[in-house]
User: Fold this.
Amino acid sequence: MNNFSYTRASDVASAVREVSSGDAAVFIAGGTNLIDLMKENVTQPSRVVDITRLPLARIEELPDGGLRLGALVTNADTAYNPQVERRYPLLSRAILSGASAQLRNMATNGGNPMQRTRCYYFYDTSTPCNKRDPGTGCSAIDGFNRIHAILGASEHCIAVHPSDMCVALTALEAVVRATGTQGERTIAFADFHRLPGDTPQHDTNLRSDEIVTAIDLPARGFADHYAYLKVRDRTSYAFALVSVAVALEMDGDRITEARLALGGVAHKPWRNTDAEAMLNGLNATKDHFEAVAFAILREAKGFVHNTFKIALAQRAIVRALQHAAGMGRKG
Amino acid sequence: MSTTPGTGTPAVRAPTALPPTSPITLHLNGAPVKLDVAPWTTLLDALREYLHLTGTKKGCDHGQCGACTVLVDGKRIVSCLTLAIMRDGATVTTIEGLSTGDALHPVQQAFIDQDAFQCGYCTPGQICSAVGMLAEGRARTADEIRELMSGNICRCGAYVNIVAAIQQAMQGSGGSVKP
Assistant:
């Protein structure tokens, strides 16, 4: 870890001022990813701004019936919050399928979307990586790319975003609240992360002078018909090879609205609203689900070691949809 | 060691500036302690190297193994991925702070009763993690214990007895346990 200076921000405005003052400054909250990246010398900040004492650690009901998740509420306290458990079980389930209990006690709602990819080459400073050192090349494209992207990748980067929480937030159409030197703004969750294109060094559309202050959940939580299915190399404490978040509105056996987001397959949580719309008005059947799964993966492109993810994702989508629709539960 | 050619004596290096340190206070195992830390000193290194509490183990130092698990303000965290300076004023409980005099904590006693370790390196982290998990009150079944203890790796593979030890401690504290 490189040497750095440390300041503790007392309010959001001073935090923004501290981080926008020019040199390589970063915010720290949970620290579970940042400190690891600093130990690996992937990130070498000259200044670390501690935001853990900011007043952003509350979960509050919103006038429109939604729920505001403060940026500094831990992932564990969010997943176990009675309102989240009851009204947004998809989010609770997704959070609890990620990391370990210790890490969930540290990691925050603002930090989870800001975590970096776990691409081995991004972490290995002896190898080229366009995300870590723009212009040096992508080691994963012709390397060991078993965990890498099958959708939305570019010739410059095939990394995936590692979060489970963000997959659920995408399906729930959450909204990120951010404050910067130019004031406060909201960012739809689907627009928060970005595809790599030719600038994979940028994971998100958050500006460098901005801080995430909260994540707002809309009133509708899809608590009656949801599923979060995570497929990984061991049954706990591993990143997703493929994960699927499903949220359905149903009228009897008929689907009136379908939301579907994939994790572990792209540089951002992957959503295909055209494919989802295919389910509107249809009965919940395996055939219909297979058609949607095929449509979502039609444009998928495998590399040498991750081609298996295409069939895996299709099957995971079908199973998650069946689970959300309550199929196979009645014996 | 590099030497100045022809002399056999150590080369003279430019002096390295000592890192700036800041005073912090931890409420550690029931008593306040003051120490000076550099910004980049992790809580784990502060405990082991500055406060000489070597019960907390450095395994992977990357948050993947759980050997450095301690309780901060009552919650289990990995001490390798937090900076000591960020925890100024916090209440920290390590494996050294669980017993009361010679009376072991029920989870410590259960690990002995159930033979829940071989080499013992992961054990302080396992025990602190289990104490944190019992306080959370989310584990009832053996499967739930396994899931909520998955952040603690045991390379000896003592998992079967670790789960048994935690079940013993849960029964002792009145918690219901299902197989």
In short: The radius of gyration of chain A is 20 Å.
